[in-house]
Amino acid sequence: MVEGICAEQNIIDGPKRNQETGEFEINPDNQQPKRGRSLDCKIEGLAERHLLTEPEARALHQHRYLGNSALHELEVPSSERLDIAISIIEHAMETLYNIPAQAGNLSRMRARAR
Hints:
4 helices, 62% helix, mainly alpha
């Protein structure tokens, strides 16, 4: 789901974070953040483009960790974890799709009322 969102939003990469420090890794040649094409970098790319806030991106990372455990370690998540994961992805979709659409509707309504 998150990969699909990134693809639909044309996010092909993003800045890389150091997993230990949480800081962006810096390219010594140009002093800019290193970039990567992995899902964790793409999530950072969503925040970098201001499509999601930093807290929303951190929540999507938690969603990603749950998916990684299920896929790579064959860990079956509890129903409570699945409920939380569904809430996180629903929130991201609200932020990226529903709220902008609703704002557009309000704008059109306001323009017609003039």
